[in-house]
Amino acid sequence: MPPGSPAPRHPWSRRAALGLAAGLAAPALVRAQAFPDRPIRLIVPWPPGGSADAQLRSMAEIAGRRLGQTIVVENRSGASGTLGAQYLATQARPDGYTVTQMHLGIVRRPYLLRTPPWDPATDFTYIIGLTGWLFGVAVKSSSPIRDWAGYLATARARPGTLTYSTSGIATTNHLAMEEIASREKVELVHVPYRASNEGATAVAAGQVDSIADSSAWAPLVEGGQLRLLCVWSAERAARYPDVPTLRELGIDMVVTSPYGLAGPKGMDPGVVRILHDAFKEALFDPANAAVRANFDMPLQYLDSEQYRAFILQRIDYERRMAERLQLRLD
């Protein structure tokens, strides 16, 4: 062949390439078209009966009807709500038949342990962002602290003695109170409990000065045993229209600890889309909206790409807070 002559072309080469590409894409297409053909497992990493359990069970029932398959809710409590993530990272197949609640404690945990159990950036497939919690600070109704200004004044007058309960060390609410204390230049004492309702009961009994947690305090506030000083949502809670937000009190913070759903890494995009669409429909269903309203849970929908972007952004914050506060769980 003379120098500079074009290489010979095979008439079948383009057709073969297209056929090869179609062949590679076909299994994924078939998987998505056939999905789901059996029940799906949704791991809730908390005991039955809580707000997240109720909200996710409602979604599972509604989404299951759309998918034509039962979504079985499996409660796996313990390890600060991370057993679902642990199962995804170590055992679950990326076929779409096992998903779990993804919350910020899972994103945070690798930065609290010497040996990280997973990488939140790469070890999960993010499906949909859903909702969060209403957080706030409450004191015993007979406390001399009447409002948020009084709370800060007491903290300044009694450095290192004003106590607050949370549902555990390195929880979102614990980190938020550390941030508030830093901004307001006050010294507070953290008293962690195993669960939010235990902390609320301790405050009502006078064992702790205050609670900074999700709305496990609500029944005691409505029953008159506790006084709610502030909420951490973007706007005032509909159930507590007279209670100011942190922003209204001069602290530019919104804390709702958003959560969503995730599966194992490597899930087929078509399957992710099917799951996303079913759970989105369930999230916006009036029945699920009623459950969220019952627990004052804000709607915080994010599609799959937006939810992944949110997690990647949050990873940096969680890493910096763990380093700044020198938080360790081992």
What does this protein look like?
With 330 residues, the protein is α/β, with parallel strands linked by helices. The protein has two domains: 38-132 and 258-325, Bordetella uptake gene, domain 1 (D-Maltodextrin-Binding Protein, domain 2, 3-Layer(aba) Sandwich); 135-231, 3-Layer(aba) Sandwich (D-Maltodextrin-Binding Protein, domain 2), CATH 3.40.190. Helix content is 41%, strand content 18%. It contains eleven helices and eleven strands. It has helices at residues 13-34, 51-67, 83-90, 104-108, 148-157, 172-184, 196-204, 218-222, 269-283, 286-294, 304-325, and strands spanning 40-44, 71-75, 98-102, 124-131, 135-140, 163-166, 189-192, 210-214, 226-231, 259-264, 299-302. Strands 2-1-3-10-4-11 form a six-stranded mixed β-sheet. Strand 1, helix 2 and strand 2 (71-75) form a beta-alpha-beta unit. It is globular and about 65 Å long.
Nutshell version of this structure?
The chain has helices at 13-34, 51-67, 83-90, 104-108, 148-157, 172-184, 196-204, 218-222, 269-283, 286-294, 304-325; strands spanning 40-44, 71-75, 98-102, 124-131, 135-140, 163-166, 189-192, 210-214, 226-231, 259-264, 299-302. It has 330 residues and is α/β, with parallel strands linked by helices.
